[in-house]
Write a structure and sequence with these properties.
Largest sheet: 7 strands, mixed
Shape: globular
Structural class: alpha/beta
Distance between the termini: 24 Å
Strand order of the largest sheet: 3-2-1-4-5-7-6
Low-confidence stretches: none
Protein name: tRNA threonylcarbamoyladenosine dehydratase
Strand content: 15-25%
Pfam families: ThiF
Number of helices: 7
Order of helices and strands: HEHEHEHEHEEHEEEH
Mean pLDDT: 93
Organism: Chryseobacterium caseinilyticum
Length: 246
């Protein structure tokens, strides 16, 4: 593999770290403000195999925070825009694109036979998010789940903790409650912001695509969530040994 473009990465994580990333296989579900940045950070680090999933197209309201969203890309599929960008970063990336909203009924098909090393949950709707986490946990695949970046504006409050340690996040609270019903109360790494959501920024919707409401967002918060999620995955994979975990 041509590693010239990864020269500075290799100085930091050495050849073994680069090889670990090159041989790794990561699933990213959701390519909005969080997932689009997370996928890019993974590609720029040298992750060699990636599956990206999203059925959405770019809307003008995405431009304030999402990497694929430009005036020139409105109406285009995010999975195509992000996928093309990832391959422009690393033409040798083994990339699979799934251009659909990940329906809970499709989890087995997405997971079976893929041997993922890590799953990034960047979904912002409860039902598919829950299904993805459960599917990963039942297959003993490591997962990092991104909670609500909406209604938040303090980047210093963003952190990664076990789901049992999350607080001040409505989405995390809902996911915690529902996971407990299937006997999962810990073991899921979560990116969340430990500050109070701005309730004045909440807007109700028609409930399509599993979504009943959303909070206002600022450009940098979803990107920071994606950065933390990607760093969690990359740091784990760099240290990964042949026997499994570090």
């Amino acid at each position: 593999m041509d590693k010239n473009w990864l020269e500075r990465t290799e100085l930091l994580i050495k050849e073994t770290g680069l090889e670990n990333l090159h041989n790794s296989n990561v699933l990213v579900v959701g390519l909005g403000g969080v997932g689009s940045f997370a996928a890019e950070f993974l590609a720029r680090a040298g992750v060699g195999n990636m599956t990206i999933v999203d059925g959405d197209t770019v809307d003008i309201t995405n431009i304030n925070r999402q990497l694929p969203a430009l005036h020139s890309t409105i109406g285009k599929h995010k999975v195509e825009i992000v996928g093309d960008r990832l391959l422009d970063i690393n033409p040798k990336l083994n990339l699979i694109r799934i251009n659909e909203f990940l329906n809970p009924d499709r989890m087995d098909e997405v997971f079976d036979g893929k041997n993922f090393d890590y799953v990034l949950d960047c979904i912002d709707s409860i039902t598919p998010k829950l299904a993805l986490i459960i599917a990963a946990k039942r297959r003993k695949i490591k997962v990092v789940s991104c909670m609500g970046a909406g209604g938040k504006s303090d980047p210093s409050k963003v952190m990664v903790r076990d789901i049992s340690k999350t607080q001040h996040c409505h989405l995390a609270r809902q996911i915690r409650k529902r996971l407990k019903k299937v006997k999962i109360d810990k073991g899921v790494r979560c990116v969340f912001a430990d500050d109070i959501q701005d309730e004045d920024s909440l807007k109700m919707t028609d409930g399509s695509n599993y979504k009943r409401s959303f909070y206002g967002t600022i450009s940098f918060m979803p990107a920071i969530f994606g950065l933390y999620a990607a760093s969690e995955v990359i740091n784990h994979l760099v240290k990964k040994t042949d026997s499994g975990d570090e």
